[in-house]
Design a protein that fits this description.
about 280 residues; single chain; about 35% helix; 10 strands; binds zinc ion; 9 helices; TIM Barrel; alpha/beta; 8-stranded parallel sheet
Length: about 280
């Protein structure tokens, strides 16, 4: 049986409140390693708690998603732009260095994330410049934290690849990391790869042919796979179905199909990449 590695899951989110631990057990039985990623302090802490319930195969990342830096709400729309918008409330979290440092030092924490820049999900009609500045400032603080604990980054970036590149060039993260849920061009991907980052691909690549060129142009050695569950359920599954880490196999299948290689090769190489970037032996 091939081993898979979901490098970005949110079994620590409330969508898995009743069955998160069972889902993770099932992942391990089905040969899927999982990194649960925090999006604010509370979900980061829960990710660490989940990881510590398992001897191996489940790890955590801790950080504040850029949308949670601003208090308010925004409407989230499915990337296929067909399903109705969902209102997401954000709590205006401040950067609490000491609290995150304590979590980050846990042996099961393999990355700092998700952190980054999101210029897409701003409330309508507000002055976005101060918010962008705040996101940049906090991202730099998380890069410092990553360097302090010598762990890589998991970066969320939407509509902000140029600013992200500039920050990563000027604020070197020693252990590099992953640009997750990548939706840019292969040329942009290559700029991150040159800086030493891996490209995280998820269910979005299964929604059509928009990312086939990206998949073809970037080497398998630079790709990690992920689900970003409970969101972004890959096709051919029903879009209304809750996404789960085991469905990372559909992402692997799409990469295999586009590259004309076997799914076993995609599984093996992306698992190796995941272990390598997270420093897992
Ligand atoms: Zn995520």
């Amino acid at each position: 049986m091939s081993q898979y590695f979901d490098s970005h899951a949110h079994v620590n989110f409330s969508a898995f409140k009743g069955d998160g631990e069972d889902i993770l057990k099932q992942c391990l039985e089905e040969g899927v390693f999982v990194v649960n990623v925090g999006s604010q302090y509370s979900t980061s802490k829960r990710a660490v708690e989940y990881a510590n319930k398992f001897k191996t195969g489940v790890w955590a990342a801790v950080g504040t998603h850029p949308v949670h830096l601003n208090k308010g709400s925004f409407s989230y729309r499915d990337p296929e732009e067909e399903i109705s918008e969902v209102e997401i409330k954000t709590n205006g979290e401040e950067f609490e260095r000491e609290k995150y440092l304590e979590l980050a030092n846990d042996a099961k924490v393999v990355a700092i994330g998700e952190v980054g820049l999101d210029y897409h999900h701003f409330e309508e009609g507000i002055d976005t410049d101060p918010l962008k500045e705040k996101q940049k400032e906090i991202l730099k603080k998380f890069i410092d934290l990553a360097n302090e604990v010598q762990k890589p980054l998991i970066i969320h970036c939407w509509d902000a690849y140029d600013d992200l590149l500039e920050i990563l060039q000027n604020n070197v993260a020693d252990k590099k990391g992953i640009v997750h849920s990548f939706v840019g061009s292969y040329k942009t991907a290559n700029k991150f790869i040159e800086l030493g980052y891996k490209i995280g691909l998820n269910g979005i690549i299964t929604y059509g042919e928009s990312y086939d060129r990206l998949i073809k142009e970037i080497g398998l050695e630079n790709i990690v796979i992920e689900t970003d569950c409970p969101y972004l359920t890959p096709r051919p599954l029903e879009k209304s179905k809750r996404n789960e880490p085991v469905f990372v196999k559909f992402v692997a299948q799409k990469i295999a199909d586009v590259k004309g290689i076997s799914i076993e090769e995609v599984a093996e190489k992306t698992t190796q990449n995941g272990k390598e970037v997270f420093g897992i032996k």
